[in-house]
Amino acid sequence: MPCAAGAPVTYAAHRGSGTALRLREAGLRVLHVPPRYVSSEESAIISLAQGGLARPMTKRQPFVRGGRDSEGRRISPAVVLNAETVWRPAQISRLGPAWFRSFGTPEQPGPRLVSVSTPAARGVVVETSAGAPLTDLLDLAGGLAAGSRVVLVGGLGGTFVAVENLSGLLWSDADLARVGARTGPGVVEALDPRDCPLEFVDRCLTWAAGESAGQCGPCMFGLPALATDWRALAAGGTGRHTTASARGSGCCRGVARAASPTGSRVSPGRRSASSPTTSSSTAPAGATPPTVRTVTTTRAAASDSSATGTSPSTASRAAGTGCAPSCWPG
Question: How far is CA 240 from CA 230, 232, 262, 298, in A?
């Protein structure tokens, strides 16, 4: 987190994580961030770095100019940059734009980091690019388990894709559009065969409600209410709220979409035989070819996991739970 020209750079990493340990062993300045969803937000990191809580601050102007928080405390000018955001321009500067565009598709050029989870391994970070076969990404995290039925593409705001539609499906917006999905933030998760999609979304909403910063009404009260109603729906009842009210209530867009049967769904999909054309640019000598490869692996038991050792999708799943046939496309 560079604060000004010539000022030292601080590297933010989850407290107690393997990443924080490796940064510290390299002699770098490390900001130990609580493993909470809101704690990685830009202004939350700035607040923590300057002696406050790891909670988002109200932005009256970009904090790159400095300013004051809601309590009047002075905030020094600061810039927060995502690690991949810094990494890619450095690569382009060193290897050139033709190298960058030799990866991916014309519409989505360049290498990408994707987080892939399966019942065998969680949070496997893969360096890939648009146009890679989706099944190749899953194979790098242990592949599909026997009996797997759906894969969630795009994270909390993504789309459930039926396993029978994965053959030949490419990880690109153009090809995923055929099954109603998008690459989104670069998250792919194969559900455990024991999982019911309704119960899976229930766990995600419950997790999101528990990760609120408690600073605004829709997040503090709306998310728990939405989670409660969704749980009633998953149990076969009805809820007080509709997905339309969730969309317009001010809830986080990804969570509201995850609760929507039109935004996060089991998609039987329709695909044609055509696929997007990959970029034909030639990489310079010595450059890494545009193939899928694993960068780092973080499993559920590793120190990079959250304080509870769970993710929103695995939290509180009862052993041996099943799914009603009505949950799946017919």
Answer: 10, 10, 19, 39
